[in-house]
Amino acid sequence: xxxxxxxxxxxxxxxFSLFIPLLAQASTFNPNYLISDNDFTDMFSMELGDIQAxxxxxxxxxxxxxxxxxxxxYASEIIWRAAQRNGISPKVILVMLQKEQSxxxxxxxxxxxxxxxxxxxVCDGCTLSDSDIQxxxxxxxxxxxxxxxxxxxxxxxxxxxxxxxxxFAPGVACSIDGTTVVPANNATAALxxxxxxxxxxxxxxxxxxxWFSRNYPTGSLVQDSETGGVWLIQYGERRPxxxxxxxxxxFNEDMIIPVSATDLGAYAIGTPISLPxxxxxxxxxxxxxxxxxxxxxxxxxxxxxxxxxxxxDDLVKVTAEELAYYSEGAPITLDSVYPQGILLQDARTxxxxxxxxxxxxxxxxxxxxxxxxEDKTIKPVRPDELEPYDTGAPVKFADGTLIxxxxxxxxxxxxxxxxxxxxxxxxxxxxxxxxxxxxxxxxKSANLHPLGDELENTGFENIQEAxx
Length: 468
Known about the structure:
alpha/beta; 5-stranded mixed sheet; elongated
């Protein structure tokens, strides 16, 4: 069959809308990128039992019907077998079932919803009684025909000729409902070939993000499982880390967690992180700045520059456009004390402070010291040398750090200054966290961070809870 038969039935999403987490509703729809190729064809993404548990939220949990081989099977097994047979992710099948007929969450679907579960073969001018389309009628036939169309039709064509039957292809601009769309990959081109409408594919993206994408909190250091690129999730954006030097000077590599390209695609791209922390930046106009995190501090004179111990050999030439990425902080003058920061230890008490710009910030525990300043040298000083400095707020764990209180079971993720309890081991592992990355500290250090919302799994676990 050719694509012109496959315009889809309108999705009935009223029931589904009751179960979409707020995160997914807030996600930005990117029409050029719907899902990664790996996620689209990952036929092992769910076990049979997972699919059955997922379907328990609606009618399909107990739905049993004849499969394409004549054997009676539950809907979950029909979906699982089609995924294995045709090489399409069962997650994609579930999303398509919801997008087309709301079948995953519907408690009482009509027979037409079941018989035309994925709208396969139903063209814009067809009625469901047309004789030409009856060969595709039936729940199992719909699942098999759709997944077969994707794998042996659209994806096979893309791999052999570089385009689908209607000309959709990665990197090739096409018009969808009056909007120019440039599919980023094969999966996106295939989905537009099946449903050549923006609304239907936005529904697909919304449902996928609600059920199968994770909300990575601010501070998460993530790595694209397809490209290997490392990103910082920060306030709803993904910031590319474009150099190894920037990564090593700012972050702990052990905290990197693998994520799918689809999950990353749900975040808008923020400003890049390209330079190591405390780089000396030399602007086009001759001004010199010290980079501190996302702030640049103007060094007022060359006398100040040399008095601090800086060298012109360390200057990095930058353009005005590159400087525009950063906010401007207080200038550095001859009166500035330790603008790069230094660790000073009271030789009498053993207490360690981070001193910056004439303010000493106490460090309450070895765990905070290790997490924040792993490679920084500690300089012992006399107590009277510390006295001139004002005392600031205690140093906290950085966003993205995993902590726990010794002899207590709960693990927390620090995000936006809050400690967010991780719901359970399944959530911990589901986010890709590693037990070796947890800093087990004392209660005083943990309590520097106010308690935040619990970090839970997204996906069908939460939707099941909402259904019950």
